Records
---
Amino acid sequence: MANKPSIPKGTRDFSPEEMVRRNYIFDTIRSVFKKYGYQPIETPAMELTQTLMGKYGEEGDRLIFRILNSGNYLQELNDANFPFRTQIYNLDNRTLRFFSDSISEKALRYDLTVPFARYVVMHQNEITFPFKRYQIQPVWRGDRPAKGRYREFFQCDADVIGSNSLINEIELVQMIDEVFTALGVSVKIHYSNRKVIQAIAEVLDYPHRMIEIAVAIDKLDKIGIEGVNKELRENNFAEDSIEKLQMIMDPSKRTPESIAAFLSGSAIGKKGLEEVSYLSTNSKLMGIAEEKLFFDVSLARGLNYYTGTIFEVKVNDSRSTFTSSICGGGRYDDLTGIFGLPNLSGVGISFGADRIYDVLNELNLYPESVTAGTRLLFANFGGEDEMHSLKLLKQVREKGIAAEIYPDNVKMGKQFTYADKKKIPFVAIIGENERTSGKIMLKNMQSGEQQAVSFEELIGKIG
Amino acid sequence: MANKPSIPKGTRDFSPEEMVRRNYIFDTIRSVFKKYGYQPIETPAMELTQTLMGKYGEEGDRLIFRILNSGNYLQELNDANFPFRTQIYNLDNRTLRFFSDSISEKALRYDLTVPFARYVVMHQNEITFPFKRYQIQPVWRGDRPAKGRYREFFQCDADVIGSNSLINEIELVQMIDEVFTALGVSVKIHYSNRKVIQAIAEVLDYPHRMIEIAVAIDKLDKIGIEGVNKELRENNFAEDSIEKLQMIMDPSKRTPESIAAFLSGSAIGKKGLEEVSYLSTNSKLMGIAEEKLFFDVSLARGLNYYTGTIFEVKVNDSRSTFTSSICGGGRYDDLTGIFGLPNLSGVGISFGADRIYDVLNELNLYPESVTAGTRLLFANFGGEDEMHSLKLLKQVREKGIAAEIYPDNVKMGKQFTYADKKKIPFVAIIGENERTSGKIMLKNMQSGEQQAVSFEELIGKIG
């Protein structure tokens, strides 16, 4: 096995430089979550297959990574679930699924939402509701890898479950604003409300086809008004219904008033617009700039379980090539129902840490301080100099300062190169002179300046 | 699917209370790693199966969790690798392995050491050597779950690779001491040296059976001297060789002098004892108390790749029931050789975070401050009181203080219970009086005391 080693496609190693940048993003998000009273939980990477299957649609099911049972898993097969040799060349999905279920009962989590719902149901008796939890963990999807799409990536979720109050939505908007302000990314928060979309479906005379209408409208950005009309026609929506929809899709025609008039006959539409208005008014009161928050009736979100406000955050910076959303979420009224605990309303957001990382890299938005690591390297001359350096090093660390000694007595050039590459700003040089004088020769790696200093002066300079 | 949800055996959910305790452990370890100049990396949860297989012995191979290939993985089977229907009832290991390799090319990482070796070889041109890296990530093993043994658990590894210097070993001892001192756990650091064990094998006239001898000696704690003798006899070691070993195993007979005399004829033994002595002397100079560091010739460590110093850390507290090691490591001279980069010496330690967590729970060693979460809850009376509270809440958070508002206007008792359960120390009560007077009624949840305070006084009290 002296083949060149590699890693599975769609996965990544993170070097120290990358880790420091990623941790900066995680720390920023985490500190906002905490400041708003959200508490951390973690769930296992592996869930039982039955917990995940059927929750993400047919496409999602296919993208879930399944784990082979341990031991001699084939022994548990029998004539009923073991496909015929001739069958495997022409296998239907049902047989494949049946076989997979027989040899695999665990799978890697696909998102943090379903494990969270499972967690809430399992631990309902220990939880204090309303439960404000955050969770920052990797998820895995067997998607085709592409720019910004990985098979292992991190989600950073905050949800509050067990409260109907729209205060939660306002706070989520504040949190989104605070995270991206702290990261220096200019964003636009698009929001809408599933009740409004439901009302549109009613006005169009298709109250039971809300999701289809939402999915079509959601493509406006990509395929334009004509494209949406075409899709609706292909799906056999009546011509006069499609005609009614035009005002909603055309930003030049729609106004708050025209939308209100359009939905005036629908009770759920009225409720939806009230929620939209409440969120808009109070977010402004909480200091969210008007141009950051954008009521976007064309926003739909793919997932079925949303029932109220929905969010999607996009980069608002002409220098960025990122058009997909970097954060999203919404309110769901019955997420835990699938696990047997109905009627618990919740609302949450998920930050896509890996896309945010790509955006920050693209726009080079990391502050200087983010590279902070070791502050001081002791050069190594071996023998007594080494022992003297080790003792001083111990005292430096006792001050809480990250410091190290070059472990081997090699040429100075090599030791300086090490400091340089590791971006260590200072090197301490201890030779016989320094040992007898009690001073430390301190080299500033940026300026190249060298200076004999006392221990206290050293701490003052590097601390 | 309204079955009671559950999780795979051997895995765990972590509640907010547990997360805070776990993060305290991770943060403590991480801060020591950083202070010693170690830098973080992360590797994917999934590695290619060929990267992992054959690195952990036959038993290890069996415990690796394998991931089923995506898509219609059976289609890639053919007559050669698809077992006969009749075969599956009586399957040999080779056929099973062959079949598994055909339907699974990825696996979950089993430890952090092999992925680290793979990382170093893959990224050798970007790395500045000596490379001091730390890595804190979960690993997965299909072990039978038991007390202190999980199928998903965290390792916290620090390794330096590309340096032969024993300074690294001294620093690792300092790091172990610093971590456990910070956590308040009294420990004993057992150490030995594989060169010494190699020399013992030579003196016993079995220079090529070092590992077998090491494995037998390693069981001293469990089976006693007679047990070890018996095992060696069963393995056909000669009686006079076993006789020679008695002094080494008997703490009442062995002294530094008798061990030195025993190994005096072995060049590698002399080298090993020099290393032992260097580590002992210099660790003391670095302030490690003599009783903490214990040269233990009966320490062997199971893994093949160690070639020099080996460590194992055990709890030294009579109140604890934990006898297994909570940290271990050692020097290896050729870990990256398996991936095609030979002759790179390294040394490292691994903290078993989950066992440390269990020990801290058992001995109740968490400081008070570890529970710190939300500092202040605004009670919710709805309407204008609510809006006034939201504005004050915003100002509290702007001071960097974690605070929240109860999202719904429900009975005060319920709101206080929420604060109580979430261990929030203060509740702010804003009614009409407070709105007009500009004061805040602040309740101390511990003492029950209530007091009208200004905003500045509030910050002073809760900050």
---
Amino acid sequence: MVVREMLQPHRHHFQADLEAVVRCIEACYECAQACTSCADACLGEPNVENLRRCITLNLNCAAICEATGQILSRQTETDWNLLLSQVSACVIACQLCGDECQKHAHHHQHCQVCADACRRCEEACQRLTATVPTVAH
Amino acid sequence: MVVREMLQPHRHHFQADLEAVVRCIEACYECAQACTSCADACLGEPNVENLRRCITLNLNCAAICEATGQILSRQTETDWNLLLSQVSACVIACQLCGDECQKHAHHHQHCQVCADACRRCEEACQRLTATVPTVAH
Amino acid sequence: MVVREMLQPHRHHFQADLEAVVRCIEACYECAQACTSCADACLGEPNVENLRRCITLNLNCAAICEATGQILSRQTETDWNLLLSQVSACVIACQLCGDECQKHAHHHQHCQVCADACRRCEEACQRLTATVPTVAH
Amino acid sequence: MVVREMLQPHRHHFQADLEAVVRCIEACYECAQACTSCADACLGEPNVENLRRCITLNLNCAAICEATGQILSRQTETDWNLLLSQVSACVIACQLCGDECQKHAHHHQHCQVCADACRRCEEACQRLTATVPTVAH
């Protein structure tokens, strides 16, 4: 990923900590891919009928992480209230998906890898939220 | 759109009002397309340098409406806390984008059409939120 | 959908037939939603283990239709070779998904509705391709 | 990115070379982010009116790379004809976007970084296509 290099043009105008934004974008794209892949691997498991909630949460988390990573990548005339609201939905998606994947991690290695990606994304979202000055909320 | 026909299999298990969900999904897809198109039309205007905020809000609103319409379309083992959190981000995106488009509506017809689509989506999101029982929040 | 109103600003520069583009964009968004919804309804069926291929094709068709509808909505300085290449991938996605859904249409009404949406999108893509002048290929 | 770990469950059934698929998915997600970010940085440039084609190609390339990375991440009951058709559209998107970004690379560092990401994605797509056995085409 070349997130840091791409955000350089905006470095002077940033309301948020550059490193926190970079890390959050990277985590969102990683988590989007992991969740897309985990939904697919769950679908291929013999006990797919026990993985329905996991698949739905994976697909929803992937969609939300993609949107979040995308809007965080846009910093020209951006609105931080909007970004923080979307990041907040992303935190919930990652928590729910990470918890569900963890339940199946003992039997399915892909669920463990995905749960870890969800945790990293959740943490990156929360760290970003903490760095945005109150005035912007 | 065939949203209503597609949601029939889930009609018995619904925590939310079926018509409110159908309407919200339709409005999200309509708004996603309108915002994508409005960003593009703004980009082609002679005064594009005055439309930077409009373009960014359009692109963000499109991404958020797509994600929201997509996750509302998934009702198997869904989680309403997650859906409501994403719908809440969608309300903010539609408000900001609708307000900005309205400012340019006098000069650009595409901004008027897009502002109207944003309003419809915002209202559909708020009506859906109002129908979901408190216990699900 | 307000596709036609949104494309008006571009009406003078069009290499393709405006109505064919409008129809194709509408069909792409409709099909994207129907496929997302059908994947979800299949996931909720008791015989989900027989619907694996249907779910994968639905999710892939949804992603491809979303991308296709989105890039067709952008007409400022667009490149028709790129658009036609993506439309061509969309035709294949709709054919495969429509065929697979049709196999299950007897047992699952959502598969019938989705198969019909895939057919409409496939036809709209092929009609659009036929209207773009050879010089643009 | 955890692409390799996520694809392990499918390693025995692969028609394509695992490393080529992993590399292509990583390149698609990287390029999607870079193009989203480059469109935004271009929009913020003083000479935005000269960057219209660059912005449109960036946004289209981002949408196509996202769809391509997503469908390559799904390997349960997948269809390689569909994947190759989408990968082929992705090659064209990356070529056009990379060429256009390269024209502006002298003045805009973000265009250079994005042009490089487009080249890597184009190459990864072509290498993947070369590894898929003829029978699957």
